[in-house]
Amino acid sequence: xxxxxxxxxxxxxxxxxxxxxxxxxxxxxDAVGPDDSRAWLSSLPADQPVSLYLHVPFCDTLCRFCGCNxxxxxxxxxxxxxxxxxxxxxxxxxxxxxxxxxxxxxxWGGGTPTTLPASAMRRVMQAIRRDFDIAPDAExxxxxxxxxxxxxxxxxxxxLGFNRASMGVQDLDADVQDACGRIQSWEQTSDCLTALRDAxxxxxxxxxxxxxxxxxxxxxxxxxxxxxxxxxxxxAVFGYAHVPWKQKRQNLMPVGDLPGPQTRIAQxxxxxxxxxxxxxxxxxLDHYVSPHDSMxxxxxxxxxxxxxQGYTTDTAPALIGVGASAxxxxxxxxxxNAVSSAAYARLMGNSPDSLPVVRGVKLDADDHVRAAxxxxxxxxxxxxxxxxxxxxxLPTSHFVPELAHLAPMVAxxxxxxxxxxxxVTEKGRQFVRHVAAAFDRYLTxxxxxxxxxxx
Length: 455
Ligand SMILES: C[S@@+](CC[C@H](N)C(=O)[O-])C[C@H]1O[C@@H](n2cnc3c(N)ncnc32)[C@H](O)[C@@H]1O
Ligand code: SF4
Description:
Layout: H1 3-12, H2 34-42, E1 50-56, E2 58-59, E3 71-72, H3 76-97, E4 101-110, H4 118-131, E5 132-144, H5 153-159, E6 164-170, H6 174-180, H7 186-199, E7 203-210, H8 217-228, E8 234-239, H9 261-277, E9 281-283, E10 287-289, H10 294-300, E11 305-307, E12 310-312, E13 318-322, E14 327-330, E15 333-337, H11 341-348, E16 357-362, H12 365-380, E17 382-384, H13 385-391, H14 400-405, H15 407-411, E18 415-418, E19 421-424, H16 432-437, H17 445-448
Parallel strand pairs: 1-4, 1-13, 2-3, 4-5, 5-6, 6-7, 7-8
Antiparallel strand pairs: 8-10, 9-10, 11-12, 14-15, 15-16, 17-19, 18-19
Helix pairs in contact: 3-4, 5-7, 8-9
Residues 59, 65-68, 109-110, 112, 143, 145, 167-168, 170, 207, 209, 238, 240-241 line the site of S-adenosylmethionine.
């Protein structure tokens, strides 16, 4: 890294949200609860489609780096009982939004949703197909762990209509895997991908992480080259989020071996160069896609979106989260369910129509316009403030203070401003969260410390 890059680092280090939503989850409070959720769900216009996200907070084993809400639950009956609760929560939601609602995206995440017994997964999916109207071209996806995919699952996923699977790889290096407590052979990764594709689950995402203990630049580039040879349709390349105040298990890693910010930047650059060289197109902050993937088309047509699961081609105005810790994003506001599966089950048991919502945030007019700007910046790396102001009936001078705030980024060559148009440069891509942050009216130096490293 040269002196100019080091000085960028000193100005743009620190912590920031990933802006998978605005306001971010840091703004959630218990001032919002089940009654708000009920009101916002009931007022969804009948002719509008929704997306569904179902969260399964169980894994076969836990990885030390993982920041997700998940635990090991050995008892298969208990996992089936959790699936029955998902079904019941969906039933309660349908009483509010009406039966036969069109679904354009359906995603199972976690944790590891394939920890649900096959019969339980089949029951929930059959109920969804019966009670909702799944669009013929809907993306139906699931997160899988290549080390523990049950042999009957690929065929089951195809039978139930899944057309995309997302699998974690993170890093192929044995020392890094040892530091993270996630030992995953090359054969497990490639066999999993082949089994899914052979079964007819054609679109595959692979997740990689840089910034893990013992990773080095040459090693992450080797991992990127190797997984590229499997021809995944999409890759997510996450910077390791070290948040031990939220996830104590991260302290079980050799944290003294965590790479510093300069090395993280070099690792990200090495993966970026490798994947571009292999023909993948960069998308937003952290995705790479095959030019034939639907996300490449969404990017080209300016219809890419960002939600709690990251970048998406989903255009539905409402995302309904089901299960422990799941977040819903509705036009009225955002809500989150009880985080632990025990608390979730308890709230579901309160009454036959109770919703397990514990916190959230109500959106006002200013939140909506800033959310639109932040989403465009994060997805398209550009935004025309004049267009946004016209759309929201605001004077074109409305965001002058925010534009002024970006002046140092312009001087650093990370952003270009022409009139009211903001364009993040290629050099600025990894700083896109800093551009978004200029429009975040809740962010303070103090609140930023609750997020992970911005670089
Ligand atoms: C919810 S996990 C599900 C993946 C699946 N259970 C597996 O392990 O293969 C989705 C992805 O989140 C990413 N992830 C988890 N913890 C992270 C952290 N602390 N920092 C960055 N990425 C993380 C990993 O890349 C992981 O594959
Ligand atoms: S990375 Fe996947 S398998 Fe590992 S703990 Fe997180 S969700 Fe579970």
